[in-house]
Amino acid sequence: MILVTGGAGFIGSNFVLQWLASQGEPVVNLDKLTYAGNLRNLEIVRGDARHVFVRGDIDDPELVAQLLRDHKPRAVLNFAAESHVDRSILGPAEFVRTNIHGTFNLLEAARAYWGKLAGEAQRTFRFLQVSTDEVYGSLGAKDAPFSETTAYAPNSPYAASKASADHMVRAYHHTYGLPTLITNCSNNYGPYQFPEKLIPLVILNALAGKAIPVYGDGQNVRDWLYVDDHCSGIRRVLEAGQPGEVYNIGGNCEKANIDVVQTLCATLNELRPAAKPYASLITHVKDRPGHDRRYAIDASKIRRELGWKHAQNFAGGIRSTVGWYLANADWTESVTSGEYQKWMSANYRERGAAA
Ligand code: NAD
Ligand code: DAU
Q: What span, in angstroms and rounded, lies between the C-alpha atoms of 87 and 354?
């Protein structure tokens, strides 16, 4: 079996569902269930004996050691993290604790466990760190996309915490020989994404007739990948990646934020027409401090060496994502309760957009 952390969050839950549907191998899922973790994401596998959910912290040494001892996984995949840049700006401490210290704790536990394995089990064990393109910093309009050899230059507390974790993972391979893999992926979108992130936030604000907040001039560029493709890329890296190596995952899909927002509004006009076009709700608001201008991923290494390529295009991915949010209003209602309202007013009041 494998041990997945953060498997009740957006990407982790999509990964667990895809894994169980396609591989059949059991999963132990360790998740603290922070505001971003939600067992409703895993409803499809409720009662499935191949899925063992454990509520707990990756930064708890006894718990992690016990899970490794009891379940003897062949791999640890670390999705657990504080993941929202704006939250890291308003409160970075939890990012240091979970993303840096939590990853360190997992590495220590994995090192002790792996050290006691023998023969084939030790040779084939993997520790896979799910990381982000934000560790590489910000690109100018004409710069080449991030490759695996681009120097780290993280700009937000979130990006710096992920970069620190990646450095520890690298060090554990270099120093102790732990068979590690790191994936650096670009912006994901799709079902079960918490509506603090751009795409679900736009969909929900639009449906509620609220202002759609676009930071700054809306010309910041992100490189979008449908979440199922990220999950299939991780599976491929786990299956065939070389220990100690880094693989960038991306879908070659750069878009300015304002174009993403316009596409979402046009899709909503079609699927859920309202009295006025949704684009009339677009409101430019105060920019994110230190806002990275452009991300772009060069995914040629994973294509060349592991034969992986994304399957979903942006138009299809956005259509199915909007369709999912329209069809799952009960899910969105369950995650947009009191805590969410507090975040919306903390982040947007100062920016001048109605939350
Ligand atoms: P998310 O915020 O939706 O989910 C994070 C999950 O981790 C939640 O279920 C939460 O409860 C859990 N968690 C948080 N702290 C924990 C702790 N101390 N112990 C155990 N569980 C804890 O995040 P996401 O968007 O699904 O991102 C998953 C991973 O992918 C992160 O490592 C993130 O850095 C990385 N990533 C995200 C994107 C993206 O676009 N969302 C892109 C590239 C990489
Ligand atoms: O690049 C990978 C990263 O993508 C992941 O590592 C992060 O976990 C994930 O949150 C995401 O980070 P971003 O900061 O790029 O995502 P976010 O959805 O917060 O913002 C996307 C872009 O949209 C960014 O340029 C900021 C802008 N934005 C965001 C929000 C929430 C707005 O214009 N308005 C908003 O209200």
A: 18
Query: How many other CB atoms sit within 10 Å of the CB of residue 272?
Result: 15
Find all residues with CB under 8 Å of 344, minimum gap 6, and list them: 355
pLDDT tens sequence across 27-42: 999 999 999 999 999 9
Of ligand 2's listed atoms, the one at least distance from the Cα of 221 is: 25
% of the chain beyond a pLDDT of 70: 99
Average pLDDT for consecutive 10-residue bins of the chain (355 residues)? 98 98 95 96 96 98 98 98 98 98 99 98 98 98 98 98 99 98 98 98 98 98 98 98 98 98 98 98 98 98 98 98 97 89 90 64
Pocket test for ligand 1, best of 34, 55, 197, 253 (most atoms within 8 A of CB): 34
All residues at 6 or more sequence positions from 331 whose CB lies less than 8 Å from its CB, including other chains: 40, 192
Residue that the structure tokens 């681009």 belong to: 150
What count of other Cβ atoms lies within 10 Å of the Cβ of residue 255?
18
Active site (annotated) includes residue 259:
no
- As given in the structure block, the two tokens for residue 248 are 């960038």
Which domains can be identified in the chain, with CATH numbers? Answer: 2-189+225-252+291-311 (3.40.50.720)
